[in-house]
Specification:
single chain; alpha/beta; about 40% helix; binds adenosine-5'-diphosphate; binds magnesium ion
Length: about 325
């Protein structure tokens, strides 16, 4: 009985979410790598609640409660994650822009989620970005592997490069719906750089510059989200390439899903709290209803008419 009520609640919740076009936040806790110590996760609720315990404080004061749209615990499988994400990915086919990004410290499971369970233009200068046409899931997975390889290759030159770079896979969808209207949409899969604070004593020179750059782009993302949450008239998309790239998918017309990744070990308590706080901030953002990028037949016909008139005019001159 309880589970049915919880499930019904979630269904209703999702319907409300759809209406509001809200940003969704899922939290994922990876399994512990250290079986010998007790981890900081006290409770994971089916309703998306998560309770963590500060190991250094008395039980009452050390208890922190967070609420998300869903929490995947250490035993959740890739299939579980995919099932919960699939409707959102499907809506790309209905003409919505969708952005799924993974946030969290290095080693918390971002790549694990993005690679296995989620299967430029506009004047932005991304010299190394490439575009490929794909025919199958296998093609996409191949490209994702290539991207991950490119991140890893640089790690010989700069230690741990893959944890300090963002990886963005964008899938552009062009199609026609049954009424003949043209649909254009895109799906961004963003595997963000590790969110951990950089210890300045450990890095110098170019590495420090790189780390600061990454921290800056993550804080720009936070600023954009805060501005959206406060419904500011100015949203500072232009402050970083990352937010500029994701602009169409972070605004009111898109559907956004954030995976907040946390490690359960006591050692990472500080980073875990800061990730969960960031995620909580993101989940309070309210956007307008998501909109389909659709041009009706009428608009298309008018455009064609304009084009042929333009041609006729040019021929006359
Ligand atoms: P990140 O991309 O955040 O740095 P990774 O995705 O590389 O972290 O994960 C770190 C390690 O933990 C990898 O070896 C990965 O396979 C493992 N891992 C992460 N999440 C899970 C999970 N949910 N279940 C099992 N192993 C996981
Ligand atoms: Mg990674």
């Amino acid at each position: 009985g309880y589970h049915r009520v919880v499930n019904e609640n979630r269904k209703l919740y999702n319907m409300v979410q759809d209406l509001r076009g809200n940003i969704r936040v899922y939290c994922r806790v990876r399994p512990s790598f250290r079986a010998e110590t007790k981890d900081v996760i006290e409770f994971i609720g089916e309703d998306g609640s998560l309770v963590i315990l500060d190991p250094l404080k008395p039980r009452k004061e050390g208890r922190k409660v967070f609420q998300f749209n869903h929490v995947f615990g250490p035993t959740a499988t890739q299939d579980d994650v995919f099932k919960e994400t699939q409707p959102l990915i499907r809506s790309v086919m209905d003409g919505y822009n969708v952005c799924i990004f993974a946030y969290g410290q290095t080693g918390s499971g971002k790549t694990h989620t993005m690679i296995r369970s989620c299967a430029s233009e506009n004047g932005l200068n991304l010299p190394d970005a490439t575009m490929h046409s794909v025919k199958s899931t296998a093609d996409v997975l191949q490209l994702m592997k290539l991207g991950e390889l490119n991140r890893a290759v640089s790690s010989t030159a700069i230690n741990n490069r893959s944890s300090r770079s963002h990886s963005v896979l964008t899938i552009h969808v062009h199609g026609k719906d049954t009424s003949g209207s043209i649909l254009r949409s895109c799906l961004h899969l963003v595997d963000l750089a590790g969110s951990e604070r950089v210890d300045k004593s450990e890095v110098t020179g170019d590495r420090l510059k790189e780390a600061q750059y990454i921290n800056k782009s993550l804080s720009c993302l936070g600023d954009v989200i805060t501005a959206l949450a406060q419904k500011n008239s100015h949203i500072p998309y232009r402050n970083s390439k990352l937010t500029l790239l994701l602009q169409d998918s972070l605004g009111g017309r898109a559907k956004t899903l954030m995976f907040a990744h946390v490690s359960p070990e006591v050692d990472f308590f500080g980073e875990t709290v800061s990730t969960l706080k960031f995620a909580q901030r993101v989940s309070t953002v309210e956007l307008g209803a998501a909109r389909v990028n659709k041009e009706s037949n009428e608009v298309m016909q008018l455009k064609e008419q304009i084009e042929s008139l333009k041609k006729a005019l040019a021929n006359k001159e």
